[in-house]
Design brief:
This protein has 306 residues and is an alpha/beta fold. The protein is built from seven helices and 17 strands.
Length: 306
């Protein structure tokens, strides 16, 4: 007979790992599914200095190793499987993977998101050495330095303004078509003396030595810029499309909609972390994972299926 898990967690980033720590520690059988690297996008952080309890900072990989070890110690079972679908079968939930299917009493979706990449030479080479995908995470590392912000969406506008609090200069590059909408903060961005907006051009290469030293642009008024960092803030790609197709409500950006207890619109399905598009920080993802776990355990108890 196929095992019925108390909790199935989809995604092994900070939210999923934290949820597993909570549920397994309380004696709930917990299965964690993720076909990628355990730790998720947090592994990309070359330095995390704002996670409580680590005043000297540590790498994302080091922090995720601690999360993973703790989850394994409490008995979370890890399976590197790609989720291809979910279904609500009433008392039990079905999670289908390329390797088969799993049954659970509850499901916590912590599938995260993926950032669109520029896909230009130098991007991967200087990732973590001047190339970043999170202004709030890495902005303090560029105090009194020149940074470029790539992106035409609302987040790019907001984060460019945020970076003026630490950087000496912010070069905003929305791309050939300019900003996608007339955002309320655009006037603030354009009138900030620390900001230079370059429209009509795109980055074609990121250059440097050990760290980023500049970017090359398409032909125009200027085609080469000196910069110490490049923040790539393009649209995100939802990794939860299959789950949303199962009937879980999401907004127009593919972000899963949850209530204050991380409950989705489907009973027994919870979501946490970057797939809910709130803050995109390790500490908030962990907090949401904890809330989702507490809600999932309460759901199992109320159903009386333990």
């Amino acid at each position: 007979m196929e095992k019925i898990w108390d909790v199935i967690i989809v995604g092994a980033g900070p939210a999923g790992l934290t949820a597993g720590i909570y549920t397994a520690r309380q004696g709930h059988s917990t299965l964690l599914l993720d076909s990628g690297k355990v730790g998720g996008r947090a592994l990309e952080a070359h330095r995390i200095e704002n996670y409580p309890g680590f005043p000297q900072g540590l790498t994302g990989a080091e922090l995720m190793d601690l999360f993973t070890g703790q989850a394994k110690r409490f008995g979370v079972e890890f399976k590197p499987e790609t989720v291809i679908g979910i279904a609500d079968a009433g008392d039990y939930k079905i999670v289908s993977t390329r390797g088969g299917y799993h049954q659970g009493k509850t499901v916590i979706i912590a599938a995260g998101i993926q950032r669109k990449q520029l896909s230009v030479p130098g991007e991967m080479e200087f990732k973590g050495r001047g190339v970043s995908y999170c202004a709030i995470c890495d902005g303090p590392f560029f105090k009194d330095k020149v940074v470029a912000v790539v992106g035409s969406g609302h987040e790019a506008v907001q984060d460019a303004i945020h970076l003026t609090n630490t950087a000496s200069k912010v070069i905003a590059i929305p791309g050939k078509k300019g900003y996608s909408e007339d955002y309320p903060e655009l006037a603030t961005l354009r009138h900030n003396p620390k900001v230079e907006v370059i429209e009509g051009q795109e980055i074609v290469e990121i250059v440097g030595d050990e760290f980023v030293t500049g970017v090359k642009l398409t032909e125009g008024r200027v085609n080469k810029l000196a910069t110490d960092g490049v923040f790539i803030l393009l649209e995100h790609i939802s990794t939860s499309n299959i789950l949303v197709e199962a009937g879980i409500d999401a907004d127009e950006g593919g972000c899963i909609i949850v209530d204050r207890n991380q409950q989705t619109n489907l009973p027994g399905f919870f979501a946490a972390g970057d797939c809910c598009c709130i803050a995109w920080q390790v500490v908030t993802a962990a907090g949401e994972g904890a809330k989702a776990a507490l809600s999932a355990m309460k759901y199992v108890k109320q159903k009386g299926t333990t």
